[in-house]
Amino acid sequence: MHATLPLLRETDFPPIRRNKLETLQVNLGYRCNQQCLHCHVNAGPKRKENMDEETVNQVIDYLKSSDVKTLDLTGGAPELNPHFRYLVTEARKLNIKVIDRCNLTILSEPGQDGLAEFLAENNVEVVASLPCYLEDNVDTQRGKGVFDTSLKGLAELNSLGYGKEHSDLTLNLVYNPQGPTLPPSQVELQASYKEILKEKFDVDFNQLFTITNMPIKRFGSMLISKGQFADYMQLLRDNYSASNLDGVMCLNTISVDYNGDLFDCDFNQMLELPLKGKNQRAMHISTLAQENINDKSIVIADHCYGCTAGQGSSCGGALGD
Ligand code: SF4
Ligand code: SF4
């Protein structure tokens, strides 16, 4: 059974429309050195999808022609794309803020020499996954040895000034639940992370983002195989909070896949729900500058309840914080 099918029936999620575009979230490919249980991308070492140079240049051309303020790079492990450093450098020349969604272990991978220094030199904001401050929990979700290698990555980033007081290098961490539950309070969990990571491992960071697991791809399949899909969807619906609608990330963000195709968000990309432009044709980064997407209605389905449940969830963590 396909994990995404239960979401694609008609939804009663409220209609939402786009505001001004501020962030381009670019998925550089689905290859990753890890293969985490909760991954909504199904990323892993065997995935071959990668954005090619021509499409990377189309992204750069769009950045030149628009007043987008932030380029948010994701994957897979975005750093595994051979054009990653080129894209970052070009965006920074345009004075665009760049975010790297980094899994931390990539910093220790062969072929990634000087990655941390490169990120620091270009003042790239690092958003790093660390779903727990306990080794067992991290290794269960993300693979054996991931916790230790992640700490090594954090130490390297801290040594360059990331996450340190009076430094302009930002290091934010991401927490997501181990199973089919909503994240706890972001404010309270951040306080625990700060205290325990400092005390036990001398790690500093700026903010903790708590992110709700989306019931799609690997996490969705896991829910289906354990017979928990319907209950998890019900949990998301039962905790719907209308005040979160104003903060969902699709209002000001567009997701670009490795082919340059456009989606309202990364989750819609995984569900193959494209953003359609003139004549109802799927939109592409090469023609985005010619489209007016302000006020355009957003493609919604039941998974959208994952963004509005409880304290809300986005790539920047809980909503309204
Ligand atoms: S969750 Fe992130 S680090 Fe884990 S497999 Fe997916 S892309 Fe890779
Ligand atoms: S899942 Fe995507 S389209 Fe739906 S509310 Fe969240 S960000 Fe918007």
Structure description:
- With 321 residues, the protein is an alpha/beta fold.
- The chain has one domain (5-308): TIM Barrel (Alpha-Beta Barrel), CATH 3.20.20.
- It has an eight-stranded mixed β-sheet with strand order 6-5-4-3-2-1-7-8.
- It is globular, with a radius of gyration of 19 Å.
- The longest helix is centred in the middle third of the chain and has 16 residues, at 186-201.
- Helices cover 30% and strands 11% of the residues.
- Bound molecules: iron/sulfur cluster (2 copies).
- The site of one iron/sulfur cluster has 12 residues, from loops.
Q: Tags for this entry?
A:
single chain, 321 residues, alpha/beta, TIM Barrel, 8-stranded mixed sheet, 8 strands, 30% helix, globular, binds iron/sulfur cluster
Small-molecule components bound: iron/sulfur cluster
Shape: globular
Number of helices: 10
Record the strand order, biggest sheet.
6-5-4-3-2-1-7-8
Proportion of beta-strand residues: 5-15%
Number of E-state strands: 8
Fraction of residues in helices?
A: 25-40%
CATH class: Alpha Beta
The CATH architecture is: Alpha-Beta Barrel
Structural class by SSE content: alpha/beta
What is the mean pLDDT? 92
SSE pattern, N- to C-terminal: EHEHEHEHHEHEHHEEHH
Q: pLDDT under 50 segments (min length 5)?
A: none
Total individual domains: 1
Q: In CATH terms, what is the fold-level topology?
A: TIM Barrel
Taking all Cα atoms into account, the compactness measure Rg is: 19 Å
Q: What kind of sheet is the major sheet?
A: 8 strands, mixed
State the separation between the terminal residues, measured CA to CA.
Answer: 38 Å
